[in-house]
Amino acid sequence: MKIAIVGAGAIGGFIGGRLARAGEDVALIARGPHLAAIRGNGLRVIEGDADYTVHPEATDDPAAIGAVDVVVITLKAHSLPSFAERLSPLLGPETPVVTAMNGLPWWYFQRHGGPWEGTVLRSLDPEGAISRVIAAERVIGCIVFPSAEIAEPGVIRHIGGDRLTLGEPDGAKSERVQRIAATFIKAGLKCPVRTRIRNEIWVKLMGNMAFNPIAALTGATLGQITGDADIRAVATEVMNEAAAVCAKLDIRIDVTPEQRIAGAAKLAEHKPSMLQDLEAGRPLELHSMVGAVLELGELLEVPMPHTATLYATAKLRAALRTDSA
To answer: Which uninterrupted H or E stretch holds 38?
Structure first.
């Protein structure tokens, strides 16, 4: 199976490394010093006691790869609209696109059914650039649970987690999604297939939309966030607001805010990704993790004052960082 990983940074590099080690034909789309290092020395992946190097095809030009069997997108959500047009050469007539990205996906209401079918979230695909290239029928949803980092160009350090949850947006257990899951499992990843993938999206998103902007605003780790009673209360209110949106969308969440906070507390030293991006001078995933949920709240007439406050202040924090750089 020929698999293209679009955005082969930390997570994409980890997934691509695992697949290449398992013998899959992998092409990595990366850029800058990271790409140069992969081309020169291969992709090195460090996982606990394991340390291996693979030599997949690597490029910054999708046209150099051509049509593949599966595209896995691991770009940050804000990067996809401007990159989407470049994906066309990778897409054969039947190529599925696995969206291994944080936050609400642009396709949320595609193949959804019901009164919201086809609704476009402006904060995720404002000009329709993504939907013009990636037809709804190609999409396979994916929730990413591993944590990884680029230790240095060409070197990925796996921090923890090995589960990628897959699901067709229309709930079908298709042959293609099961084939892709089997390929990931062969590579040593856990890969359940869910018929209600949007439920799984919200389980992760409820924590991300609270912890990430709080971390960006305060510089706090998950342990510091969950260890402060006042901040825990704010995070709980944000998650309660998300749960109110879920209720309007017939989404069933079996994890309470208290359980989500308790789970985060176990990762005490972890810096949420938005804080890591802020410190590294990278754009923040605010639109997909928070802004799109506020847009949903507005559509559904669900008040979200705590979420709106976090969003506004985190946007200003990011803007001030950029202005002073």
So the answer is: helix 32-41
Residue type, 301: E
Annotated active-site residue in 76, 173, 190, 204: 204
Do 170 and 212 have their domain in common?
no
Same domain, yes or no: 74 and 94: yes
- DSSP code of 242? H
Pick from 196, 202, 144: nearest CA to 169: 196
How high is the pLDDT of residue 219? 95
Nearest-angstrom CA–CA distance, 143 and 34:
24
Asked whether 142 and 165 are in contact (CB, 8 A), the reply is yes
Residue pair 149/159 in contact by the 8 Å Cβ criterion: yes
Using a 10 angstrom Cβ sphere, with 0-12 exposed, 13-18 middle and 19 or more buried, the burial of residue 53 is middle
Amino acid identity, residue 246?
Answer: C
Host domain of residue 118: 2-195
Do 103 and 190 belong to one domain? yes
Q: Measured between alpha carbons, how far is 157 from 178 in angstroms, rounded to an integer?
A: 28
Known catalytic membership, residue 2: no
Domain final residue, candidates 176, 195, 214: 195
For 205-233, what is the mean pLDDT?
Answer: 96
The pLDDT of residue 169 is above 60: yes
Sign for the pseudo-dihedral over CA of 76, 82, 86, 92: positive
* CATH at 6: 3.40.50.720
Separation CA 129–CA 138 (nearest Å): 15
How many domains would you assign to the chain? 2
Alpha carbons 155 and 74: distance in angstroms, whole number: 17
